[in-house]
Amino acid sequence: MSRAKLLVTRRVFPEVLEHLERVFEVQSNPEDEIWSMQALREKAAAMDALFVVTSDRVDETLLQACPRLKMIATGSVGYNHIDLAACSRRGLVVTNTPDVLTEATADMAFALLMATARRITESERWLRQGHWQRWAWDQFLGTDLYGATLGIVGMGRIGSAVARRGHGFGMTLIYANRSRAANEEELGATLVSREELLARADHVVLVLPYSAQTHHIIGAEQLALMKPTATLINIARGGIVDDAALAQALRNGTIAAAGLDVFENEPALHPALLELDNIVMTPHIGSATRSSRLAMAMLAARNLTEFFEGRAPLSAVALPAA
User: How does pLDDT run across 90-110, given as a tens digit for each residue?
Assistant: First the structure.
């Protein structure tokens, strides 16, 4: 009996490939090439399953080219790169990788927060350029974290993990969410409107999923509500923040600084962001510890093998109608 065919679109850990090869005839991408949409369609056409990442757009055109396709596993928590409605019409299973990156991403939120508030990357560039000749009272004055008010927009798993870290800094915690968090009392956080949060917080961390409803949820109007001493941290998804409006706010001093791990149209960056000193930018590495990335890839692989061995996948976001 022939085995199901699986396309793995990006280079992945050897142990993950070994797990997949027990069940599938695997076509992988060891050179880690970035395929065009046309190349992806051609490679996926004869496949029964796809293992994709967030840079792979799974849309109607791709699905039409894949008549044998039964399942798509993304190696990410977010799945806005996959047209779920089109997948549902075809009865496809779609899975993601929640939970396994929560703590690493919350760590990254605080890494960006500390680097941004204390002007770490800005001062390091200045030092490396040979400008440090003397000490001064007002040299690279930053913003306090200890005892500050931390505003978290989106109180899910990662937002809750960020809140717990805030306790170690003696922070006052406020959050904005679609509904009251069940763990609100445990976290010692207070639910407020998004507008109140932006106005009160010394530091704002964005940890909410991207959707049509959250596109540019932080734009010029929202940035104008923030304190001129405030920092904005985005570890969620590009597109939640209007990057052009943010660049203008940073240039004008509307807010003090920003830390971004995600961007609109990444890996392309809005050129105005690159001209600014009061911003810390990292290339979407929020989950980039070996243990977290391996756990994400292995969960995606296990979702695939469970389903093709006749069991329910571990973390489905779309299943065929019963």
Answer: 999 999 999 999 999 999 999
Question: Rounded to the nearest 10 degrees, what angle do helices 102-117 and 120-128 cross at?
Answer: 60
Round to whole Å and give the CA distance between 58 and 47: 14
Measured in degrees and rounded to the nearest 5, phi and psi for residue 104 equal -65, -40
- Please list the active-site residues: 237, 266, 284
Model confidence pLDDT, tens digit, residues 169-189 = 999 999 999 999 999 999 999
DSSP for 175-215, written as a single string: EE-SS--TTHHHHTEEE--HHHHHHH-SEEEE-----TTTT
Residue 81 belongs to what domain range? 4-100+290-318
Closest CA to 319 of 34, 105, 90: 90
CATH number where 45 lies: 3.40.50.720
Domain count, the chain: 2
